[in-house]
Structures are given as structure tokens and as C-alpha cells.
Structure prediction request, 119 residues.
Amino acid sequence: MSPNATDSMKSNLGEAAGHLKQAATHAGEALKGAATAAGDEVRLGKAQMKSELADGAIAGLSAVEQAGAASREQVDALMDKGRDLLESASDLIRERPLASFGVAFAAGWILAKLARSSK
Prediction:
């Protein structure tokens, strides 16, 4: 007995259903694989981000430590300049005491006038 058109159609529909089922299975496996790969990439990215943040924090702390040392250097330089200025002023006073007294007196008098006029 030869197959009729209805039997052939049923056979072809059954084969198509089998192929669709296999395609759905493969699509599910592909999605699972993609999700696993994406999860791995997220974990790797998170680890790299933490590493960079830690390196940044260490560099920031080093900069803060260096800022303290740099400020001490600047204060020392200013103190040296102040000492040099005081030595120069004391040398000038020893060399010209009368002129130094006159300049100090005039400066005091001007400051006193300015203080009285601002009230």
C-alpha cells in the first residue's frame, strides 16, 4: 500500500516538529552558554575594577604622605628666609642705628595716624 497525501503530510509535520524541538534545545543551550560567559566577564570586570580602585587609593595615600613632606620643606625654606631677613635687619641696625631709629619712629607714627583716622 502506497502512502497517501495525508500520511505524507503527517510525516513531514512530525519531522518539522522534531527539527523545531532540536532548534529550541540548541537555542536554550546557547543562551545558557552566553549567560555563563557574561557572568564570567562581569566577575572579571569587577575584579579589575577593585584592583584599579585599590591602586588608586594607594597612590592617593602616597600623594598625601608626600604632601606632608613637601609642606615641611616649604616651611623650612620660609623659616630660613625669615632668619636671613632678621639677620639683614640686625646688621643694618648695627651699621646705622640712628637711621634705623628714625625709620622705625616714622613707621610707628604713620601707623598710629592711620589707626586713628580709620576710627
Q: What stands out?
A: The helical segments are 5-95, 97-118. The longest helix spans residues 5-95.
